């Protein structure tokens, strides 16, 4: 059996590739090709949306590719740091839409990691996760928006530098709300839990929509405008400007928005980094093992002395805290917060990230966040742009002789994200329930369940 | 106490004429459920009346422009009738939903989409009939029966298909897994129908062709004391349809052999299978019946929701999500009084849902809030009562 497989070309390739020198060369070539392709794109090109859809995802996925390679750990970390701190900002200066996308990916990856603590680690399906995100976003937005809220009218407006403090305020507030949600649902399991959390998510949204009536806290459905941003020191703007001029990139218009984006990018990266480290440490700690125990068998976990109430509340609070911090960042970045940003579809898309990537694993969840965010914000949108561009020049598809102009105007890919999400969720659940990058323990769990369905045949055949 | 439970239940006196009357078909399957329903409705209406009087009394004494009893006498009949009509709309959805929940014990998130598909199918069939030019020739009753029937059959088949594709392979998986596919299917169906409408007509505003059915829109005035309430014929159809559905379903589940099989599967799937019941067939039938009820309900509700101009958006919410969603929500906020209207319906509905099985009204409330409301166009822009 071993002799047969070692000769297969795939195995040969793997052994060849697992040599660090070969892998290093391949990875370097990959990075250079992707970055080169990204920089060589021309916005005026007719097929630009299509090309950028093809080129940007490989670039964003490159840290995960590096992590999967058999290189030395120090080299991996260095490469990723170079990518994150140097390559990405340079590409961002070159074309700030990529920077925007990367910030969104940071935000959603943070959210997905938070949800992963609740769903993946502790096994509590939370369909209202977006509520905690909303709590974080509103906590910053209410105190800085120039909308006619009670805070603005009475002059309680915090200055921009308080942003860094409010990240912690958001963490604490969201964690408190998480405990508040956790307390009543302690005894619920499975779909009941899902329904209650779903209702809770809607509750927070409806609360935000209606908390403008007697006293205007949230400005209702109009949302909060002009949310404050962290202050930008002049040297930062100058620094970005000097880098841009050194590279010979002319920045259209004002330099400030780009510098602002760059600032948010670094804040997002730092928050995401902290979340990743925290999630990793939690996973490998006694708390993480307690969560795993609860996930696999609640009764057995109690019998083994796991403090169930404490651990469940801790899971809710931790997941919520991550979302709170991310929410503050989101509010400042979007500079607009409205109840409609926190609808059910957002919760579901974060759940989709966790499921697509692989519940319980950190790398998998980040992969899922990248895939779903890119699908949502780049691929579908760019396909729509591409269609419109082709429609404008009356492009005719060769061979089948199809006039793009005849394509129905309502059939825009960007408006059909639910179709893609729905299909993604169903297909993942049917064919790869453990996700694209399955966490080993969960994969084992699902396999055991599958084997349990046909016990006689498998046990007798694999017995020896 | 314990000895009481241990003794076998006394065999009922079969020959007692009273007993025989109670066991007879019309009493057991028509009079009993309908009577229960009437009692619930009357009770809910009474409690709500009492509540509204009490709440009104809370307003401090020099009440501006309100003569309390006058106001209640004027508004309450209309409110109650509107509540009954909306309550029956919900009950039609709840019937199919609770059936599936009862058998599989899992939340069929896609049920609201089946409801939506039912109304779209009804539209498409009616459009085809109109295209051929037959709509004027058909007797209106035949037309309604054809359309509702086709909507029921197709959405029933759709529900069976969904079960076969997305739920059956995962029946033994952890409970979260089918829940997630249900959400996925529900999202998929929304955009799938949108895509089909986009391809075939490039428009999401579906206008039911009505032909000469305009008499359906003429309301019947009903007098309560000094107030007159205009009751639309469509709402009478809704109530009738829901009552008929309830009676048939009640008979189907409690009175037939297939129904017994379904109940057995819902109690214990494995044992039912060992007893020779075809579990997969039973579950498929359950989904078919549930889907058919949902789809038929969806089609009938659309008849109701069509206002005077015969122009009604079938899934306006779907596109409003993307275009001008904010505008719509603001409108919604302004019509704050709709809550008062819906209140009645909601309570009636929960009563009704509790009637069929003891299914969890709270569960249903969340379900309804999230999955059904969007398609019902709340608040009604113009309260017609």
Folded structure, characterized:
The complex is a heterodimer of chains A (464) and B (385). By secondary structure, chain A is an all-alpha fold. Chain A has 20 helices and 2 strands. In chain A, strands 1-2 form a two-stranded antiparallel sheet. In chain A, strand 1 and strand 2 form a beta hairpin. Chain B is mostly helical and 385 residues long. Chain B has helices at residues 2-6, 17-23, 25-58, 68-104, 111-132, 140-167, 176-200, 233-255, 257-267, 269-274, 279-305, 316-320, 325-334, 338-356, 361-376, and strands spanning 220-224, 227-231. Chain B has a two-stranded antiparallel ribbon. Chain B is globular. The termini of chain B are far apart. The model of chain B is unreliable at 306-385 (pLDDT under 50).
Give a brief description.
Chain A is built from 20 helices and two strands. Chain A has helices spanning 2-6, 9-17, 20-40, 48-68, 73-94, 96-121, 130-144, 150-153, 163-182, 190-210, 234-247, 256-283, 286-296, 298-303, 308-334, 344-357, 362-392, 417-431, 440-453, 455-461; strands at 396-397, 402-403.
């Amino acid at each position: 059996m071993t002799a047969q497989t070692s000769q297969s070309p795939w195995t040969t390739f793997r052994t060849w590739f697992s040599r660090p020198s070969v892998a290093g060369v391949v990875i370097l070539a990959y990075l250079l090709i992707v970055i080169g392709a990204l920089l060589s794109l021309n916005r005026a090109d007719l097929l630009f949306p299509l090309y950028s859809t093809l080129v940007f995802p490989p670039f964003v996925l490159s840290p995960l590719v590096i992590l999967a390679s058999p290189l030395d750990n120090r080299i991996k970390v260095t490469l990723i740091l170079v990518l994150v701190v140097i390559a990405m900002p340079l590409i961002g200066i070159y074309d700030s839409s990529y920077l925007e996308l990367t910030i969104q990916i940071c935000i959603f990856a943070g959210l997905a990691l938070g949800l992963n603590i609740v769903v993946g680690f502790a096994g509590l399906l939370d369909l209202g996760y977006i509520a905690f995100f909303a709590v974080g976003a509103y906590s910053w937005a209410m105190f800085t928006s120039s909308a006619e809220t009670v805070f603005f009218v009475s002059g309680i407006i915090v200055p921009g530098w308080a942003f860094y403090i409010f990240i912690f305020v958001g963490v604490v507030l969201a964690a408190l709300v998480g405990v508040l949600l956790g307390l009543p649902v302690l005894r619920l399991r499975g779909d009941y839990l899902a329904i209650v959390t779903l209702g809770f998510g809607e509750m927070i949204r409806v609360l935000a929509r209606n908390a403008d009536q007697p006293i205007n806290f949230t400005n209702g459905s109009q949302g909060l405008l002009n949310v404050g941003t962290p202050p930008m020191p002049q040297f930062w703007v100058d620094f970005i400007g000097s880098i841009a001029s050194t590279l010979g990139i002319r920045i259209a218009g004002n330099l400030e928005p780009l510098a602002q984006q760059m600032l948010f990018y670094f804040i997002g990266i730092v928050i995401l980094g902290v979340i990743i480290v925290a999630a990793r440490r939690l996973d490998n700690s006694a708390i993480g093992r307690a969560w795993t125990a609860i996930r696999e068998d609640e009764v057995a976990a109690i019998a083994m002395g796991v403090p169930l109430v404490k651990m469940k509340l801790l899971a809710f609070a931790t997941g919520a805290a991550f979302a709170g911090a991310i929410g503050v960042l989101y509010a400042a970045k979007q500079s607009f917060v409205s109840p409609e940003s926190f609808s059910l579809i957002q919760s579901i898309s974060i759940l989709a990230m966790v499921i697509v990537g692989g519940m319980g694993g950190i790398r998998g969840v980040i992969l899922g966040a990248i895939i779903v965010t890119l699908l949502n914000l780049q691929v579908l949108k760019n396909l729509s742009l591409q269609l419109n561009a082709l429609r404008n020049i009356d492009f005719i598809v060769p061979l089948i002789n199809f006039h793009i102009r005849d394509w129905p105007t309502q059939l825009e890919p960007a408006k059909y994200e639910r179709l893609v999400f729905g299909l993604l969720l169903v297909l993942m659940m049917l064919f790869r329930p453990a996700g694209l990058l399955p966490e080993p323990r969960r994969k084992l769990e699902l396999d055991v369940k599958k084997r349990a369905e046909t016990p006689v045949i498998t046990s007798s055949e694999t017995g020896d | 106490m314990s000895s009481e439970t241990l003794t076998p239940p006394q065999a009922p006196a079969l020959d007692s004429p009273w007993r025989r009357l109670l066991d007879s078909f019309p009493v057991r399957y028509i009079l009993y459920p309908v009577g229960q329903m009437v009692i619930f409705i009357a009770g809910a209406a009474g409690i709500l009346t009492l509540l509204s009087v009490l709440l009104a009394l809370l307003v401090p004494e020099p009440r501006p422009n309100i003569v309390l009893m006058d106001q209640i006498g004027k508004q309450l009949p209309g409110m109650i009738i509107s509540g009954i009509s909306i309550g029956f709309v919900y009950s039609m959805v709840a019937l199919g939903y609770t059936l599936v929940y009862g058998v599989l014990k899992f939340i069929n998130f896609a049920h609201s989409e089946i409801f939506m598909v039912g109304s779209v199918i009804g539209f498409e069939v009616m459009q085809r009939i109109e295209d051929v030019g037959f709509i004027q020739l058909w007797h209106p009753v035949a037309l309604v029966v054809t359309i509702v029937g086709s909507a029921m059959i197709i959405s029933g088949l759709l529900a069976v298909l969904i079960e076969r594709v997305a739920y059956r392979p995962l029946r033994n998986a952890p409970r979260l897994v089918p829940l997630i596919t249900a959400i996925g299917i529900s999202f998929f169906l929304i955009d799938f129908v949108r895509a089909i409408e986009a391809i075939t007509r490039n428009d999401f505003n579906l206008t039911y062709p009505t032909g000469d059915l305009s008499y359906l829109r003429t309301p019947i005035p009903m007098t309560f004391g000094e107030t007159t309430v205009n009751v639309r014929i469509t709402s009478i159809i809704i109530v009738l349809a829901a009552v008929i559905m309830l009676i048939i379903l009640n008979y189907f589940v409690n009175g037939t052999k297939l129904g017994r099989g379904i109940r057995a599967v819902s109690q214990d799937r494995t044992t039912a299978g060992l007893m020779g019941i075809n579990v997969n067939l039973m579950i498929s039938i359950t989904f078919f019946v549930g889907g058919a009820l949902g789809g038929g309900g969806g089609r009938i509700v659309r008849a109701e929701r069509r206002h005077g101009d015969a122009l009604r958006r079938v899934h306006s919410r779907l596109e409003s999500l993307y275009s001008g969603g904010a505008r719509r929500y603001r409108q919604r906020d302004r019509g704050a009084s709709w809550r008062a209207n819906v209140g009645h319906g909601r309570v009636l509905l929960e009563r009704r849902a509790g009637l069929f099985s003891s299914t969890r009204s709270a569960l249903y409330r969340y379900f309804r809030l999230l999955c059904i409301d969007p398609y019902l166009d709340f608040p009604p822009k113009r309260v017609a009562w």
